[in-house]
Amino acid sequence: MMSRIPLPIGCLLALALLIAGCSSSQSSATPATSSTNEVSADSQVNAILEQSCYQCHSTGGSAPWYAAVSPTYLAANSARGVLNFSDWQTYDAQKKAEALKNIEQSVNAGSMPPGDYTALDHSARLTDDQKQALVKWASPAH
């Protein structure tokens, strides 16, 4: 005789399997950049920004479907209003300096990328080395 899994537990298991099946091994769409649209002269920094920031901070960003349940991602349009890497080349020196200061502070504080977003989109998580690279790039002393 087969044992049955209670319905609520079965639903949770199905949801967990669905989320696991949509792991970060799938690539999310990120905009291609050309040398004229690059934010940094450092290709490593550009790659980090594309992988972890462009989904919310670029007009071409597109996160995986499951990330759309993140409250932070739902506010992505407002995130683009604060910082939009698609418009980086149009920023004047003061606006770039303010954006870099905010990036440095946010990455140091661990508030960017937001935890509720990276819990769903693991590919947006920053390693310690990536955090250091972004902070070094964004710091006024670089």
- The average pLDDT score comes to 77
**Which strand-content bin applies to the residues?**
under 5%
Characterize the biggest β-sheet: none
- From the N-terminal CA to the C-terminal CA, the straight-line distance is 68 Å
- Report the uncertain regions: 10-35
Provide a count of the helices: 8
Oligomer state of the chains in this structure:
single chain
The class by helix and strand makeup works out as mainly alpha
The helix fraction, in percent, is 40-55%
Number of strands: 0
Cα shape = globular
Could you give the order of the helices and strands?
HHHHHHHH
- Radius of gyration, in Å, reads 18 Å
Word description of this protein:
The protein has 142 residues and is mostly helical. It has helices spanning 7-21, 43-52, 54-57, 71-74, 76-82, 93-109, 115-118, 128-138. The protein contains eight helices and no strands. Helix 2 packs across helix 8 (128-138).
